[in-house]
Write a structure and sequence with these properties.
Helices cover 61% and strands 0% of the residues. The protein has 104 residues and is an all-alpha fold. The chain has one domain.
Length: 104
């Protein structure tokens, strides 16, 4: 439910490519910094450990800097048929693709 007279804003988990494309580079960095911090905090909470411990063991689910993901998301949304895909789902797919390419 939005504020009277204000357009309703979708939940952050439903924001897709149209939203992403209107962000400036600094807004994309801020969005991804928040996403990565939230993902790390949730992972640490679930594992009952500190984020620094996960980082030290290269165990963070999203281990890269925001600018790495920003470039990948820009490429992802270049394809018009993907614009409706929520950013969260794009991040999961992109991270999986990057992870699949990492040496084990």
């Amino acid at each position: 439910m939005g504020v009277l007279g204000q357009p309703a804003v979708p939940a952050p988990t439903h924001l897709g490519g149209a939203y992403w494309k209107q962000l400036s580079a600094s807004e994309k960095q801020a969005y991804l910094s928040g996403f990565l911090a939230g993902a790390a905090a949730e992972q640490a909470r679930a594992a009952a450990t500190a984020i620094d411990t996960l980082r030290a063991h290269s165990a963070l689910r999203y281990p890269f800097a925001p600018h790495v993901y920003a470039a990948q998301i820009d490429d992802f949304y270049w394809w018009q048929d993907r614009v409706s895909v929520p950013i969260v789902d794009a991040m999961i797919q992109i991270n999986g693709n990057i992870d699949d390419q990492r040496p084990r």
